[in-house]
Specification:
Elements lengths: L36 H12 L13 H8 L4 E2 L5 H4 L2 H4 L6 H23 L5 H26 L2 E2 L15 E2 L1 H18 L12 H14 L3 H13 L1 H4 L7 H4 L10 E5 L11 H5 L4 H4 L10 E2 L4 H4 L6 H6 E2 L1 E4 L2 E4 L10 E2 L17 E5 H16 L3 H14 L19 H15 L6 H7 L3 H9 L20 H6 L5
Antiparallel strand pairs: 1-5, 2-3, 4-10, 6-9, 7-8
Helix pairs in contact: 1-5, 1-6, 5-6, 6-7, 7-8, 8-9, 8-16, 9-16, 16-17, 16-18
Length: 489
């Protein structure tokens, strides 16, 4: 069984006050005890913990399901209609309320650790530097996620020590991005190149996050340069493409060479992820996909991205299916007629003890991200150069089961593409490579393709009203913030 990198919260002495009805003397305060090398490491682990908390309703759950169903090729079916028809964007901001709370819990823990490290005079600078790097990485990534989902949010960079600190005005989007970049720039200089504890941030993870952030902001030269820095030093960081998709998505392996940064889950009750069970159907166990199946949506076979997917691409069979083998008999998977015709099968763990114990990790970044970020940004800056072709073709060659560093006529993109055509191919390739990994919606938004993609699907499906083009692209703030923060307007 995979060694669980499960982040157990340190018993930090944090006390928070309820909404103040009477003047409190003394006011409630938040404190963190003195740190030595052991308690520091435990505290750093506690900073990560909200991100990987089973039942935490963050990436492994609400986001893992909801954001993927917002892809143009997915539909939530009868049980999850509100996600795939974008009512969540227009009318139901509280779908992400638990995610908001969990994100800010991780941010709060990072802030507390940073403040404590600032005061500490006993730990060595080297020990403190790594801890700073991890805290800044977590805080930076959480705000990067938040600004893409909600837009303007309260930018809390100091610990909340009493009830009065809760009131904080929303920061402009550009100010949030500036803070995110600053955090990641510090992290890339403070973190080690490698880690013996998978699931902990490294310099390569911070650099990859920076490349992604720059890409989102349209700072293509910066994105290109940062991705190339990771590519040129992949041996230092231990990165490369894994030949086998089964290795990349194994529910039992602790890590692999493609893993840049992932949230770690294990085959332990209430310590695992949900994705394998969410996407599977009632025959999940017998079919070899999960211990149980919730049938929370599926993949639309008529969606242009899926319809045009080459059957020889190994990712198609690995990630989608319409039949499975049960006791030697080919059996049709359970789908919803005229809604979706395929199940999403990238996450598989039939040996999990329970649906809250699937061992599949959830990637925030893989080495494939680095290559595709470079290909897109290089093309934007210099056109479809040989370097841009080589980066995307490495990903495509792995998808076709051939050596990644050897040209292959079947796998490689057609030579001589225009800059626009190459950009379209990178967008398509990201759709295939990252299906099920919650990147498609963000890609649609940052490339201004939301209406194009949704209209393309609506032109071929039976019930286009299920996926209306959204009138806005960020969520409203959840009630939990509006009710507690009088300045969140």
């Amino acid at each position: 069984m995979k060694l669980k990198i499960f982040y157990i919260l340190l018993a930090v002495t944090i006390m928070t006050s309820c909404k103040k009805l009477l003047e409190e003397e003394p006011k409630a305060t938040a404190t963190l005890g003195d740190l030595d090398a052991t308690t520091l490491d435990q505290t750093v682990i506690g900073v990560y913990e909200p991100m990987t908390r089973s039942r935490g309703r963050l990436w492994e759950s609400t986001v893992g399901l909801g954001l993927e169903l917002m892809s143009e090729y997915a539909d939530g079916g009868s049980s999850q209609l509100n996600w795939s028809n974008y009512n969540n964007l227009m009318n139901l901001p509280n779908n992400f309320a638990q995610s908001w709370t969990t994100l800010y819990e991780a941010i709060g823990r990072a802030n507390n650790l940073i403040a404590n490290l600032n005061r500490n005079t006993t730990l060595s600078d080297a020990v403190k530097k790594k801890a700073y790097g991890e805290a800044y990485f977590v805080r930076g990534y959480c705000y990067y996620f938040a600004v893409r989902v909600w837009g303007k949010v309260p930018l809390r960079l100091q610990p909340i020590v009493n009830a009065n600190d809760v009131a904080l005005a929303l920061s402009p989007v550009n100010v949030i991005y500036d803070s995110v970049i600053k955090d990641m720039q510090f992290a890339e200089t403070a973190l080690p190149n490698t880690t013996s504890a998978p699931g902990r941030a490294t310099a390569g993870a911070a650099k990859t996050a920076l490349a992604d952030i720059y890409l989102t902001l349209g700072q293509f030269q910066n994105a290109r340069d940062k991705a190339k820095e990771v590519m040129d030093n992949k041996a230092t960081y231990g990165y490369d493409l894994e030949p086998s998709l089964a290795t990349v998505y194994s529910p039992t392996l602790a890590t692999n060479k493609e893993d840049v940064f992932s949230l770690k889950f294990s085959q332990v009750v209430d310590k695992g992820a949900f994705m394998a069970s969410y996407w599977a159907d009632s025959k999940a166990k017998a079919a070899g996909y999960s211990v149980s199946g919730n049938k929370f949506g599926g993949i639309i076979s008529l969606a242009p991205l899926i319809r045009d997917w080459d059957a020889n691409d190994l990712r198609k069979k690995f990630s989608t299916y319409s039949t499975y083998l049960i006791n030697g008999v080919v059996t049709a998977a359970e789908v919803e007629k005229d809604i979706y015709e395929l199940r999403m099968g990238k996450y598989k763990d039939p040996d999990a003890p329970i649906d809250t114990g699937n061992g599949n990790d959830f990637y925030l970044y893989r080495f494939a991200d680095v290559l595709l970020i470079f290909a897109e940004a290089e093309n934007k800056v210099n056109g479809p150069t040989a370097a841009a072709y080589n980066a995307i073709n490495q990903v495509r060659r792995r998808a076709y089961g051939v050596p990644t560093n050897t040209p292959n006529a079947t796998a490689d993109l057609t030579a001589g593409l225009s800059q626009t055509a190459f950009d379209d191919m990178v967008f398509r390739e990201r759709g295939y490579e990252f299906i099920g990994e919650d990147k498609r919606w963000f890609d649609m938004v940052r490339t201004n393709r939301v209406a194009q993609m949704i209209n393309g699907v609506n032109s071929v499906i039976k019930f286009p009203n299920r996926k209306p083009v959204p009138t806005k692209l960020v969520f409203g703030l959840p009630d939990v913030e509006l009710q507690n923060n009088p300045l969140a307007k």
